[in-house]
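User: Hi! I have a protein structure encoded as tokens and I'd like to know what sequence might fold into it. I'm fairly new to this, so please keep things simple.
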């Protein structure tokens, strides 16, 4: 991709030199100027590389939504008192920033709690007690001032008033109505109404017949639908497209620009589908104000530009394209690593994103159907575009409100360029997500905004041509190398990408109606127990397979035949790594079984396979690290049904890594997946005498496996009551040195206070409490919410619950599948019914009647 970018850039040496010379001149003027905006002065003093900057950001994003004074005081003390404010005193070019530093330094001294006893400490304590209301008011006011540097106005009317001075100087505006992803249908409707009102208000200022010279609006698709997710594509296209189409028609009628903001990489294809569906409306013909944001840090950016050009040609339209570097870099990198993707969707070095931006700019300038809008605060980028373009009328520059004022003034006044100011509008309490993105983009050490004010950085480095810098920087190691050189990261399946979803579906398709037959896998054991039928918890009429349980004599024979794994630590580790590879190679069968036997949704199935693979590779490393540790002998491993592959594999892999023999008893509800997993480990090279599978009831097979004196240790995951029973049996029958490694049940709690961002807390609550049908051992059971925020929190929680989709786990659209069986369903339903009778049931969703489903509930 970088090679293609380099070819696309391909300016003549003379032009490249001219661009760099221009950029150097721009930078010299900026560095010697005293005209820094308060926001730029703030970032130069309190960037994310300083503890004080991080403390201020934590304070700014939380303080304005805290309703109670006790929490405000505690938050101020926590974030201000430990830091070195005096180091920043007098160093900023802005009087506002210097005055703020004096206040923060004084406040920090006042709030210091510990130190040598004496008169000074006593006085300080008195000031703290007497002065907290004053300090609270001062810091709140400082945070509001900080917010005003980011936000043009709290309402569209206030923003338009504040924009008039710059409009008189020839600048245009694009108003960004603050509002991130909607959590509820009510949120989406509210954002739609705000967008509609804003378009009507902006229309009053649209006096030109040329849409390029009129103000515009920027919207986020995720603000208009509570489930803006590729896995919910059907709902999104049915419900979101009409809303966006209505807004676009209103903007077209008003002759203003209408810009679709960029979303995360996993929503790119979905966004383009929505954009195309809206643009194909014949009512928008002849209007050139429809705009799309393209993120140059995306490796698909050139492809998106070509796609937009082709769409514009097909529809005989003009499309505005706002080119940005990109706002979610850190998130995209971490998601790709966490999800085990094959590569990153974005460039991983700053020079590469700068290079990509210039390549995309050149492609845009050559596209006759696209109107380029170059959003940048980088002097070299602006200089390069001025050099590439034939004139300054076929495109515009864009800057953020409060940022890059002087740099863009040079482009406008000295070169006749057009400039539009991207201006957020909204209440300061809605600042968080926007604030964080701006700081990540512009507060980092490598950003132009940061470096231009740092005289320790040579100007030549600040304005360097990124294509000259690029060969000196290698990309980040790919996601598979996240744990390198220790081990390989497990492979992921990107279900939100069309090719990833297709690959997942194709892999499991052969097993959609397959019936498995399982039995004990033990040396010299035929399987003499009862045969049980395994059915699909989502559809009890569907038989998934059968399993022959181990009889008493089967268990006895398996114990007698068990032989610890005598291979070297390296040999054992190599086999475990090979087993991980085999698991991934047979992913399709595993995905099908996890859905049909255990009721796992597709995302949960991917996570479970990856966890199992990670266990195998992790314990392979441990085997070598702990060598030459002596094995204990024979281990019994009893695993649960809620993670029938991951925990089963983790227990077995740990015991095998140490050289033990393993007798594995899976949960009665999920023996088929354990049978397949054991076969795969045998195929990878684990000796059958070292790993034997003994399915069957806990009361018989499990009891026998924890009571035989030949057992040297037990690993168990399940209920506390069962663990206590096992402990008693071991105490009575096993050698006292035999360990019990037990992971048992508990109550997992979350505490939400008034500093929490409600959207984040609600999202985490829904995920933890209800994903996997609430059957994770780590699932949220008890939620404590500060009373001051209980009402808005619960309103948002109920709305988010209403957006959940319950249904067959085989389909990608299902968020929540069934519980494991009829016994679990009856027990949970009875618990909920007791709460209903007592008047304690606050919310419950309806559940499908076919299958073992339980509606998510709040009691």
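Assistant: Happy to help. Inverse folding works backwards from shape to sequence: for each of the 859 positions I chose a residue that suits the local structure. Here it is:
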């Amino acid at each position: 991709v970088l090679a293609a970018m380099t070819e696309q850039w391909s300016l003549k040496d003379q032009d490249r030199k001219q661009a760099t010379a221009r950029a150097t001149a721009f930078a010299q003027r900026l560095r010697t100027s005293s005209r820094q905006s308060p926001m730029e002065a703030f970032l130069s003093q309190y960037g994310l590389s300083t503890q004080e900057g991080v403390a201020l950001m934590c304070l700014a994003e939380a303080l304005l939504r805290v309703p109670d004074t006790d929490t405000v005081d505690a938050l101020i003390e926590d974030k201000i008192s430990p830091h070195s404010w005096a180091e920043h005193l007098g160093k900023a070019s802005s009087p506002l920033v210097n005055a703020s530093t004096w206040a923060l330094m004084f406040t920090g001294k006042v709030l210091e709690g510990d130190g040598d006893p004496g008169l000074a400490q006593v006085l300080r304590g008195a000031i703290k007690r007497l002065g907290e209301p004053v300090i609270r008011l001062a810091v709140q006011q400082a945070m509001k001032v900080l917010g005003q540097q980011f936000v043009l106005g709290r309402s569209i009317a206030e923003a338009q008033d504040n924009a008039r001075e710059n409009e008189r100087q020839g600048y245009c505006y694009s108003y960004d109505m603050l509002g991130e992803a909607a959590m509820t249908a009510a949120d989406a409707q509210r954002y739609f109404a705000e967008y509609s009102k804003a378009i009507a208000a902006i229309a009053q200022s649209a006096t030109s017949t040329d849409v390029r010279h009129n103000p515009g609006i920027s919207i986020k698709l995720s603000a208009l639908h509570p489930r803006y997710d590729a896995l919910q594509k059907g709902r999104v296209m049915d419900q979101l497209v009409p809303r966006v189409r209505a807004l676009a028609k209103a903007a077209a009628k008003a002759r203003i620009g209408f810009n679709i903001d960029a979303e995360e990489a996993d929503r790119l294809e979905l966004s383009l589908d929505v954009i195309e569906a809206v643009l194909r409306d014949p009512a928008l013909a002849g209007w050139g104000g429809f705009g799309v944001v393209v993120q140059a840090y995306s490796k698909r950016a050139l492809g998106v530009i070509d796609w937009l050009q082709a769409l514009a040609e097909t529809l005989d339209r003009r499309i505005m394209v706002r080119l940005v570097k990109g706002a979610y870099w850190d998130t995209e990198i971490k998601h790709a690593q966490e999800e085990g993707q094959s590569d990153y969707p974005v460039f991983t070095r700053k020079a590469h994103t700068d290079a990509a931006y210039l390549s995309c700019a050149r492609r845009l300038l050559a596209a006759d159907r696209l109107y380029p809008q170059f959003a940048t605060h980088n002097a070299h980028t602006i200089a390069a575009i001025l050099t590439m373009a034939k004139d300054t009328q076929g495109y515009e520059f864009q800057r953020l409100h409060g940022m890059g004022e002087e740099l863009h003034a040079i482009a406008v006044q000295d070169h006749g360029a057009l400039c539009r100011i991207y201006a957020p509008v909204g209440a300061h309490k809605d600042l968080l997500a926007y604030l964080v993105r701006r700081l990540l983009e512009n507060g980092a050490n490598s950003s132009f905004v940061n470096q231009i004010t740092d005289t320790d950085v040579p100007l030549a480095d600040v304005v360097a041509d990124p294509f000259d810098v690029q060969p000196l920087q290698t990309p980040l190691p790919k996601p598979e190398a996240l744990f390198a050189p220790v081990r390989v990261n497990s492979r992921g399946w990107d279900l939100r990408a069309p090719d990833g979803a297709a690959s997942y579906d194709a892999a499991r398709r052969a097993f959609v109606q397959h019936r498995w037959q399982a039995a004990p896998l033990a040396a010299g054991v035929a399987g003499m127990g009862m045969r049980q039928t395994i059915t699909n918890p989502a559809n009890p009429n569907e038989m998934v397979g059968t399993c022959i349980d181990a009889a008493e004599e089967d268990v006895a024979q398996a114990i007698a035949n068990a032989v610890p794994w005598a291979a070297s630590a390296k040999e054992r580790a190599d086999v475990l790594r090979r087993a991980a590879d085999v698991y991934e190679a047979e992913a399709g069968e595993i995905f099908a079984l996890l859905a049909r036997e255990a009721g796992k949704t597709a995302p949960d199935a991917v996570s479970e396979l990856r966890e199992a693979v990670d266990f195998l590779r992790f314990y392979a490393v441990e085997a070598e690290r702990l060598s030459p540790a002596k094995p204990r002998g024979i281990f019994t491993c009893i695993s649960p049904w809620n993670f029938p592959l991951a925990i089963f594999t983790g227990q077995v892999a740990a015991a095998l890594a140490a050289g033990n023999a393993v007798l594995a008893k899976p949960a009665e509800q999920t023996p088929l997946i354990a049978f397949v997993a054991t076969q795969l480990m045998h195929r990878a090279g684990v000796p059958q005498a070292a790993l034997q599978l003994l399915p069957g009831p806990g009361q018989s097979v499990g009891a026998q496996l924890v009571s035989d004196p030949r057992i040297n240790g037990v690993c168990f995951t399940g209920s506390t009551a069962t663990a206590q029973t096992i402990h008693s049996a071991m105490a009575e029958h096993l050698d006292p040195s035999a360990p019990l490694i037990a992971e048992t049940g508990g109550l997992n709690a979350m505490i939400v206070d008034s500093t929490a961002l409600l959207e984040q807390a609600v999202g985490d609550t829904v995920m933890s409490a209800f994903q996997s049908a609430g059957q994770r051992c780590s699932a949220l059971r008890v939620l404590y919410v500060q009373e001051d925020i209980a009402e808005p929190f619960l309103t948002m929680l109920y709305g988010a619950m209403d957006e959940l989709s319950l249904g067959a786990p085989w389909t990608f659209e299902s968020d929540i599948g069934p519980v494991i069986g009829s016994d679990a369903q009856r027990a949970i339903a009875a618990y909920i019914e007791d709460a209903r009778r007592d008047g304690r049931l606050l919310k419950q969703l309806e559940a499908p009647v076919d299958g073992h489903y339980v509606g998510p509930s709040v009691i």
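A useful reference point when you look it over: The CA atoms of residues 297 and 347 lie 5 Å apart. Feel free to ask if any position seems puzzling.
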